[in-house]
């Protein structure tokens, strides 16, 4: 029961959050949310079987500030599809590399950070890619949108068929879904 996640939408169908099945059941039973999509198998409780939600919509509008796209290790890794930007290896054991090293004045920004495997990070060291004779797969840039969910959570949510229709589509992350489909 704890491993099942539920997408929660605001009353205007804007994605709010992803919560546990336990929290979703509480929202339903308290009358705060209604089920839009349900799982095939019901949840067994002491009072008998209940439907297991996959997508909930709040019955009232939850007011919150406009979300900010935060620059974090997880966001950079998600943006780069958990793929080393130098050699193309995929995985979760990646580091973050400053394309232009800090000592050369390289900033800690979306345009200067990339996902990098440990081997490539050691090979590049404190050099620029040109000095290390390495080439980037693509130029790093700040994503052009502000997601309602965090970037890693948004990409994970895009990998779930019953959630996809409730999430905004961003072309720049369309190819990042295959990693999350493999790990889900």
Written overview of the protein:
It is a single chain. It is built from 6 helices and 8 strands. The protein is an alpha+beta fold and 184 residues long. It has 2 domains: 1-67 and 150-176, no CATH class; 73-124, DNA Binding (I), subunit A (Orthogonal Bundle), CATH 1.10.30.50. The strands form 3 sheets. Strands 2-1-6-3 form a 4-stranded mixed beta sheet, covered by helices on one side. It has a two-stranded antiparallel sheet with strand order 4-5. Strands 7-8 form a two-stranded antiparallel sheet. A hairpin with a 5-residue loop joins strand 1 and strand 2 (15-20). The longest helix is centred in the N-terminal third of the chain and has 9 residues, at 21-29. The chain is elongated, with a radius of gyration of 20 Å. It starts with a strand and ends with a helix.
């Amino acid at each position: 029961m704890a491993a099942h996640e539920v997408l929660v939408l605001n009353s205007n169908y804007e994605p709010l959050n992803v919560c546990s099945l336990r929290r979703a059941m509480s929202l339903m039973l308290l009358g705060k949310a209604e089920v839009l999509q349900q799982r095939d198998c019901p949840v067994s409780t002491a009072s008998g079987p209940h439907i297991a939600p996959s997508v909930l919509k709040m019955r009232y509008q939850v007011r919150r500030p406009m979300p900010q796209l935060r620059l974090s290790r997880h966001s950079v890794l998600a943006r780069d599809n958990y793929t080393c930007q130098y050699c193309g290896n995929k995985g979760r054991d990646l580091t973050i590399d400053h394309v232009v090293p800090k000592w050369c004045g390289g900033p800690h920004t979306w345009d200067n950070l990339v996902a990098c495997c440990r081997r490539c990070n050691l090979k590049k060291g404190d050099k620029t890619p040109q000095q290390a004779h390495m080439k980037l797969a693509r130029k790093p840039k700040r994503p052009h949108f502000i997601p309602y969910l965090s970037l890693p959570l948004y990409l994970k949510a895009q990998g779930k068929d019953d959630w996809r229709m409730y999430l905004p589509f961003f072309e720049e992350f369309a190819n990042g879904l295959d990693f999350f489909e493999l790990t889900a």
